[in-house]
Amino acid sequence: MRTVGVEEELLLVDPETGEPKALSAAVLARAAQDEAAGDVFEKELYGQMLEFATHPQSDMAKLGGELVRCRKEAARHAEEIGCAVAALATSPLPVSPSISMNRRYQWMAEQYGIATREQLVCGCHVHVSVESDEEAVAVVDRVRPWLPVLAALSANSPFWQGQDSGYHSYRSRVWGRWPSAGPTELFGSPERYHRRVADMVDTGVILDEGMVYFDARLSARYPTVEIRVSDVCLHAENAQLIAALARGLVETAARAWRVGREPVDHSVSLLRLAAWQAARTGLAGELLHPVTMRRTPAEAVMQALLDHVGDALADAGDLDWAREAMRRLLRHGNGARVQRDLMDRTGSLRDVVAECVRLTQT
């Protein structure tokens, strides 16, 4: 059974005004005093963000429980220093991000200018274990067309600097400003993958391998494939669903590779269009079908995803739960829909943030 770990980035906000607060250093210091917290929490690029990483789990129910626990711990530590955490992929309210002070982040600020100053976005990264670099690259090549579907499921960033962006996942459009971000061409072998990464670093445009922001990449630290397309999800159950589907995609891709099935050779141009469409409409309209690359109702694409990974989900014992979780997600909507519904009802972005703070821990 493949193990799965999740990294989530949370927004630190003022519990009264809903505005982001640059208090990550204080929250991290408070968490460091708590032996039970361990080394779960990490510093991020901005002082208004807090990141945590779960331990690798093979049981999805345990992973879901750990996601809820980590979110509650983050909320407790934040409350102790006068702020709150919200699983929001962008701040609904206007914000001037504060860049954390270290050499790496300062280099990024100088290298990329305004693009760095506008990157206060919160994502969800899923690590799925693999047996070798050969398997990992085969997986990266084969999951490419399905990744925009995960982005649509997780979309949770409709507002930007106090305005409706018109997108369901505006975070992904902001993230795409990094020069190394986005979908990749087929690599075919570990040698080609590592040569491409080395060539990118050697240009000097990026600092190191950690700044290779492919939608799916080989982790530099762990024996995993890291899938990086998702917004942080408003509800922990949706993050658990993304993790289960990611493991299903990795296992399905590895099985296809082992029997000699070639990856679908969609161009990067088409994959970029699929990612844009997912960001624009989320689950509310049409997506590009991963096989045909033609516009298809989102619900039909969700079913295609479940069909594609169904055997892997069933073998892991996740299929029935994933079907029900998908039904709930389609019925109640992703975070973007929840945020817009809240805005329609209250007319206040501050109230949107306040309710999302509550929903983050449910």
UniProtKB/TrEMBL annotation:
Protein name (Swiss-Prot/TrEMBL): Putative glutamate--cysteine ligase 2
Catalytic activity: L-cysteine + L-glutamate + ATP = gamma-L-glutamyl-L-cysteine + ADP + phosphate + H(+)
Record key words, sorted: ATP-binding, Ligase, Nucleotide-binding
Enzyme class: ligase
Similarity section: Belongs to the glutamate--cysteine ligase type 2 family. YbdK subfamily.
Record-level Gene Ontology MF annotations: ligase activity
InterPro entries to which the protein is assigned, alphabetical: GCL_type2/YbdK_subfam (IPR050141), GCS2 (IPR006336), Gln_synth/guanido_kin_cat_dom (IPR014746), YbdK (IPR011793)
Function: ATP-dependent carboxylate-amine ligase which exhibits weak glutamate--cysteine ligase activity.
Lineage: Bacteria, Bacillati, Actinomycetota, Actinomycetes, Kitasatosporales
NCBIfam families: gshA_cyan_rel (TIGR02050), PRK13517.1-1 (NF010041)
EC number: 6.3.2.2
PANTHER family: GLUTAMATE--CYSTEINE LIGASE 2-RELATED
Source species of the chain: Streptomyces glomeratus
